[in-house]
Design a protein that fits this description.
Rossmann fold, Zinc Finger, Delta Prime, domain 3, five-stranded parallel beta sheet, DNA_pol_III_delta_C
Length: about 325
């Protein structure tokens, strides 16, 4: 299934600037992974260099889209076009040597395309030195080169880089699309429903959550939450220590915790709205043991922890506070 087809606002904007031939020398596509940013960037590069006539009914940008079948389009799709350059991180970051190599290529004119397009995937992973090196090219744009930076948020980039780019924001995908995509992958419908609802509109994230590893993490968290109610403060501190070890996974863990508590709250009033449908038996049994007002206090504890992490409060302290409140019921 094709997630980028749901990005009507972003695609409409790109179609408009292509129609007016009013393309900025640098664009930044922002949004979570799995929203179609890279696919749109590749098709944008194709549209800038297409040698054929697009079919408005099938082309990504309508009448301004690439034909997809000419020699240029086929080369770009296969990653073999000499004037469409891909820059991706090596190891943990995009290094200054990569940008220097890029700049040496940009010093020459395009070899066969109408416009050289540089796609920088994971632009937020550029080091400070590589960002500053790229800045020189952005400050002195060539009329034959267009940059497309892909990032999660503008805040991942240096402000001086952002100021020289036109942002195009990609929106979260519909939950219905995520559910259908997961079911087409062979995921159980009840599990697909749960993963799609907490994936923040990202197909990549939904698939990761539905993987064996993602499912194991969810099930482990649910078991830990049940143990908190039965074992008390000691278990709370052990869980907090574990959750604090991986700050990158904290938001996903908090999403699962919030979803679990929400399910316990709504199951007695509207069971059809339970998200973790594959755990319905356990949801019903645990819900009967906890008063609604206690569940509301626990949900508030999760919200407070998320707010602490947003404000860069110490992760260990935030998790300890959360788990103690979950253990005590508020």
């Amino acid at each position: 299934m094709d997630p980028v087809r749901h990005q009507k606002r972003a695609l409409g904007f790109l179609s408009g600037i292509l129609a007016k031939n009013n393309v900025a020398h640098a664009l930044v596509f922002t949004g979570d992974a799995g929203l179609g940013k890279r696919q749109a960037a590749v098709h944008f590069a194709m549209a800038r260099n297409c040698e054929g006539t697009p079919d408005p009914e099938s082309a990504m940008f309508g009448s301004q889209g690439p034909c997809g079948v000419c020699g240029s389009c086929r080369k770009i799709l296969s990653g073999n076009h000499p004037d469409v350059l891909f820059v991706e991180k090596r190891g943990a970051s995009i290094k200054i040597e990569q940008i220097r190599d890029l700049l040496s290529v940009l010093a020459m004119r395009p070899s066969e395309g109408k416009t050289r397009v540089v796609l920088i995937s994971g632009a937020g992973d550029m080091t400070a030195s590589s960002s500053n090196a790229l800045l020189k090219a952005l400050e002195e744009p060539s009329d034959t080169t267009c940059f497309v930076l892909l990032a999660g948020q503008k805040s991942e980039l240096l402000p001086t880089v952002v100021s020289r780019c036109q942002e195009i924001r990609f929106s979260p995908l519909p939950v219905s699309f995520l559910i259908e995509s997961l079911e087409n992958d062979g995921v159980d419908p009840d599990l697909a429903h749960a993963c799609a609802f907490i994936a923040s509109g990202s197909l990549d994230k939904a698939r990761a959550l539905a993987s064996d590893q993602g499912l194991a993490r969810r099930n482990w968290l649910v078991n830990q939450l049940c143990a908190l109610e039965d074992q008390g403060m000691g278990q709370a501190l052990l869980l907090a220590e574990f959750l604090a070890k991986d700050k990158n996974a904290a938001q996903e863990d908090l999403n699962w915790i919030r979803t679990w508590l929400r399910d316990l709250l709504v199951s007695r009033y509207a069971p059809q709205r339970v998200i973790n449908r594959d755990l319905m038996g356990l949801v019903n049994s645990r819900s009967a043991k906890t008063a609604p007002e206690v569940l509301l206090e626990k949900l508030q504890a999760v919200a407070d922890c998320e707010n602490d992490l947003t404000r860069n409060v110490n992760t260990r302290l935030s998790m300890e506070n959360l788990c103690m409140r979950l253990s005590s019921g508020g």
